[in-house]
Amino acid sequence: MNTRFRVPAARWIHLEEVKRSKFIAWLFPCPDQASFQKTLAEARTEHPQATHHCYGFLIGPPGSTAQIGMSDDGEPSGTAGKPILQVLKHCGLGNIGAIVIRYYGGTKLGTGGLVRAYALAVQNGLVDLPTHEQVERIDIQVKPGYPQLERLQKALAQFEAVVLKDAYSDTVCLTVSLPEDRLVEFKSFCEQFRIACD
């Protein structure tokens, strides 16, 4: 599984105009459905006079289809949500949502025209979208003996690991967070120096 991937850094807005209809694309981080619904509510509040609020979202790594959603919001079936989602599935980003707010300009675009317009608004919005790397992390418990503690503390940085919690008594117990893709390597290090971890 892809545990490192790029995601939108913040909400990004792009305006596309097609035959006097305005297509305002909002592209934004979408780690879960609750945050998507919150952004959709904001779009409807900020643009109450818009004709449509069409959308697509993809939660998880790039191209993942485990958690996706789309809506034509009153446009002819398959002309808005589907093209928006198609662009998202092939853009190389994960945890991404797109809402395209349409203000009707008086000229009918036809089904083909709508598909192109919605896809174009998202594609062109993606061009300058700021992104950053997201790293899927996992928490594990590590129980070094006091003699191994210093060696472990020095090694944590090389595994991009951070201590979340520590408890010291006659034994040491650390809760450590590290990237999922470094787990096997980290466990092998612990084994080598006889440090218990689970």
Q: What does the model show?
A:
The protein is an alpha+beta fold and 198 residues long. It has two domains: 4-133, Impact, N-terminal domain (Ribosomal Protein S5, domain 2, 2-Layer Sandwich); 136-197, Alpha-Beta Plaits. It contains five helices and eleven strands. The protein has helices at residues 33-46, 81-89, 110-127, 146-156, 183-192; strands spanning 4-8, 12-18, 21-29, 52-59, 67-71, 96-103, 131-135, 137-143, 162-168, 172-179, 196-197. The strands form three sheets. A five-stranded antiparallel β-sheet has the order 2-3-6-4-5, sandwiched between helices. The chain has a four-stranded antiparallel β-sheet with strand order 9-10-8-11, covered by helices on one side. A hairpin with a 7-residue loop joins β4 and β5 (67-71). The two termini are 20 Å apart. The mean pLDDT is 93.
In short:
The chain has helices at residues 33-46, 81-89, 110-127, 146-156, 183-192, and strands at residues 4-8, 12-18, 21-29, 52-59, 67-71, 96-103, 131-135, 137-143, 162-168, 172-179, 196-197. It has 198 residues and is α+β, with helices and mostly antiparallel strands. It is elongated and about 75 Å long.
Task: Fill in the CATH topology of the largest domain.
Answer: Ribosomal Protein S5, domain 2
Return residue spans where pLDDT drops below 50 for at least 5 consecutive residues. Answer: none
> How much is the radius of gyration in Å?
23 Å
Number of strands: 11
Termini separation: 20 Å
